[in-house]
Amino acid sequence: MKLLKKTSMALSLLLLVSSIGVADEIPVPPAALGVDDCIRMALKRAPELGEADQDIALAKSKLDEAGSYRFPQLTLTTLVGPAPSASRQDITSGVATEIPFTLNSVTWFTSADATVIQPLYTFGKISENMKAATHGIEVDRSRKQQRSNEIVQKVHEYYNGLLLAREMKELVLEVEEILIRAREKAKKLLDQGSDTVDEMDLYKLDAFSGVASKYLEEAKKGEALALAALRARMGLGVDAPLEVGAERLAIGDTEIPPLDTFIEHARRRRPELLQIAEGLKARSALVEAARANYYPDIFLGGVVSWAYAEGRDNLHNPYLSDPFNHLLGGVAVGARWKLDFGITGSKVAGERAQYNRLLSTRDYAEANIPLQVQKYYLDLVEAKNSVTATRGAYLNAKKWAVTAIANFDFGMGPAKEIFEALQAYSSMRADYFRSVYNYKIASANLDYATNEPLRALEK
Question: What is the pLDDT of residue 7?
Answer without folding.
Answer: 36
